[in-house]
Design brief:
The protein is an all-beta fold and about 230 residues long. It has one domain (about 1-229): Jelly Rolls, CATH 2.60.120. Helices cover about 0% and strands about 55% of the residues. It has one helix and 19 strands. It has one helix spanning about 135-140; strands at about 1-5, 10-15, 15-20, 40-45, 50-60, 60-70, 70-75, 80-85, 90-95, 100-105, 110-120, 130-135, 145-150, 155, 160-170, 180-195, 195-200, 205, 215-229. Strands 1, 13, 14, 15, 16, 17, 18 and 19 form an eight-stranded mixed β-sheet that branches. Strands 2-3-4-11-6-9-12 form a seven-stranded antiparallel β-sheet, with no helix packed on it. The chain is globular, with a radius of gyration of 17 Å.
Length: about 230
Amino acid sequence: MIIRRSNERGYADHGWLRSLHTFSFANYVDRNHMGFRALRVINEDRVAGGHGFGAHPHRDMEIISYVLEGEMEHKDNMGNGEVMRPGDVQRMSAGTGVLHSEFNHSKENGLHFLQIWIEPKQLGIKPSYEHKAFPSAERQGQWRLVASEEGRDGSVSINQDVNLYAGLFSAGEQATTPPSRYAWLHVVNGEMEVNGETLSAGDAAAFQPDEAINLTGKEAGEVLLFDLA
């Protein structure tokens, strides 16, 4: 297990946007942290009320947005326009090219979300979009599959051999970790004991294939687990 601490991440403060970068992104470049397998970006973004990302392009990337607090308004040139709330997972396959915008839907309250980029299995596909809600009851004390290549078990489908799980764990709560190949575990909030180490909000850990992952909640929180080829 290799730990990536929250305070080691890159940081950018644009006034209306404060962003923490687990991996190299934009002006933050760290050759030791360029990604993990197909996982390329985990940005933890906080957007002030009434602000957001204007229309901008993407191509050949699987983009997952995961709202933690507040409401995120999404629009794209495929005709999609939705407001995302905590527990929602949005997947956008940029493929040959897509134009989209993301704004804080509230004029007063802050927006806190994760944006995740995964390198695609196949380039040049037709752009597509998907949005699903995963109630907290489905994630409490267990791992809920929220994204997978085939869209299994009601998860969103992504153009890559990756399984993404989300779990909510109370203090003292344990759950059997799904079988994984290479794994990346990201603590969204709260505090977890993982293989005897304490991981707090923003901390992450990388695991080799078939390495045991023993997790127990120390302080109620949420965790994302990536199973990667």
